[in-house]
């Protein structure tokens, strides 16, 4: 399965997906890495690995117009799935509709808790025993689609947001490549996604 990855900066989750794709038995390949910042460090890393890249600032463009530029790049690259990996943009409903049930995102919290930003600080402030990460189907609402996989990460007494984010990133990298591989390999049974949605609703 051909996957396009959208990033905004460092791209360590993109790198994790990319390295996992080098395994002979990986059911997906990355055909494009695109960023809403031409200077995103992740673009240089992807290019060095021989992956097609595209970088353009979204500044000065209407949301739907920028998304259409990205969409055209994804289609031209032959992508059939999209993996958002540290892509710090809310997507237009038109873009989401064009990739319905074929676009995933990784979010650094145990959804549905802590949608949005500053997730680790919020978990620490709440006195939670764990934070974690979630891979979910992308819908028009922020961080809100059916959850396909999660990894809890214990919060240590002396953790701050930075130490917790760094440790959670290890879990993100493992979770994302495993969940994306499972998702693109799912038996073509239409109920697969329905069952996943039902499970995540339990
Ligand atoms: C990751 O923690 C991801 O969950 C969040 O932003 C961070 C992006 O890091 N959305 P990277 O660009 O994948 O290194």
TrEMBL record:
The pathway where this protein functions is: Purine metabolism; IMP biosynthesis via de novo pathway; N(2)-formyl-N(1)-(5-phospho-D-ribosyl)glycinamide from N(1)-(5-phospho-D-ribosyl)glycinamide (10-formyl THF route): step 1/1
Respond yes or no to whether keyword Translocase is given for this record.
Answer: no
Q: Where does (6R)-10-formyltetrahydrofolate bind?
A: 63, 88-91, 105
Reactions catalysed according to its record:
N(1)-(5-phospho-beta-D-ribosyl)glycinamide + (6R)-10-formyltetrahydrofolate = N(2)-formyl-N(1)-(5-phospho-beta-D-ribosyl)glycinamide + (6S)-5,6,7,8-tetrahydrofolate + H(+)
Domain Formyl transferase N-terminal: from-to ranges: 2-180
Q: Which domain of life is it from?
A: Bacteria
Annotated EC? 2.1.2.2
Q: Which UniProt keywords apply?
A: Purine biosynthesis, Transferase
| UniProt-annotated site: Raises pKa of active site His, residues | 143
Q: What class of enzyme is it?
A: transferase
Signal sequence bounds:
none
Active-site residue numbers: 107 (proton donor)
KW Ribonucleoprotein (keyword) present: no
Q: Where does N(1)-(5-phospho-beta-D-ribosyl)glycinamide bind?
A: 11-13
Homology family: Belongs to the GART family.
Q: What job does the chain carry out?
A: Catalyzes the transfer of a formyl group from 10-formyltetrahydrofolate to 5-phospho-ribosyl-glycinamide (GAR), producing 5-phospho-ribosyl-N-formylglycinamide (FGAR) and tetrahydrofolate.
This chain's protein is named Phosphoribosylglycinamide formyltransferase
Please name the gene that encodes this protein: purN
């Amino acid at each position: 399965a051909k996957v396009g990855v959208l990033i905004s900066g460092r791209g360590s989750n993109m790198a994790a997906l990319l390295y996992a794709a080098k395994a002979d038995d990986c059911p997906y390949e990355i055909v494009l890495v695109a960023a809403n910042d031409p200077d995103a460090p992740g673009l240089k890393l992807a290019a060095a690995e021989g992956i097609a890249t595209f970088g353009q600032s979204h500044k000065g463009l209407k949301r739907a117009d920028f998304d259409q530029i990205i969409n055209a790049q994804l289609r031209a690259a032959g992508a059939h799935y999209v993996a958002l990996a540290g892509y710090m943009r809310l997507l237009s409903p038109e873009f989401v509709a064009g990739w319905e049930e074929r676009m995933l995102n990784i979010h650094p919290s145990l959804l549905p808790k802590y949608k949005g930003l500053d997730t680790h600080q919020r978990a620490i402030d709440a006195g939670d025993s764990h934070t974690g990460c979630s891979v979910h189907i992308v819908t028009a609402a922020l961080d809100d689609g059916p959850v396909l996989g999660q990894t809890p990460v214990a919060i240590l007494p002396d953790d701050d947001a930075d130490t917790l984010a760094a440790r959670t990133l290890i879990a993100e990298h493992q979770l994302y490549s495993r969940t994306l591989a499972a998702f693109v390999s799912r038996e073509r049974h239409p109920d697969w996604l329905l069952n996943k949605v039902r499970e995540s609703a339990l």
